[in-house]
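Data card: per-record layout.
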Amino acid sequence: MRKRGRRTRGALAVAAAAALGVAGCDAVGGDSAAPSESAKPSPKPTPLWDRSPASVAAVGDSITRGFDACDVLSDCPEASWATGASPEVDSLAVRLLGRTGAAQRSWNYAVTGARMADLPGQMAQAVRRKPQLVTVMVGANDACRRTLSAMTPVSAFRADFEDSLRSLRKALPKAQVFVASVPNLKRLWSEGRSSPMGKQVWKLGICPSMLGDADALDSAATLRRDTVQKRVEDYNKVLKEVCAEDERCRYDGGAVYDYRFGTGQLSRWDYFHPSVNGQARLAEIAYRTVTAKEPLT
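The structure for this 297-residue chain is written out next.
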């Protein structure tokens, strides 16, 4: 009788285990998923930075207008690094959108002679187009003044840049911003002073704080140029810091400032502004920054 009882209890245990298996239960409880079921993967979060924006608006100064790239003392927006159509430049807009797309969905609101104080107004114009990417290159004219005392104070430069980004963010919370560093003005002076024609054009008033009395190498001239250069470096620090506070803003990491412009990248009319070749180099820097997986530091 005992043996039969043990056999009966064993059979009942096997039957119970089989029933549990059929019901899909496990050791955790009846609400748990069956082992054979695979959990659905969680959707990937949308990245904050879109490496292929569908539209571009440009704001800034004469560099973004292609000043002196095609003709003397004239804008040449078709050669602009940001939005130009020139095949010799392959602008940022063309690289991102294609030639047809760039013609339809890129806009240039930069103005020759503009300073940081003009940026809020340009940004207000740009947001009306609802661009997915706004490019910013401004600051050279803030340092290129008649006198050192006339240079834009760093605090004012910061305030106007912050105001510009705030107005953009209020109108277009998801718009992206590419910020180019201010070029190395002292290097442009060093390269351009080898051209007699360039120095003649400089006398018309192009960046007098840096380019005035171009051949002077005395202590006063050296101090003047060093002071201008320090102000440019301070401006770039502001651009970097303010941009870093906005999760949809990318600074070029000082790439434009560090780029070693040679005479081939400078306008043959003023040896200061970028030539068509120089504009192409700026477009490369911008495209590399915009399409990078991680922001440059």
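Known properties of this structure: Confidence is low (pLDDT under 50) at residues 1-37. The first helix runs from residue 2 to 23.

See the next section for split statistics.
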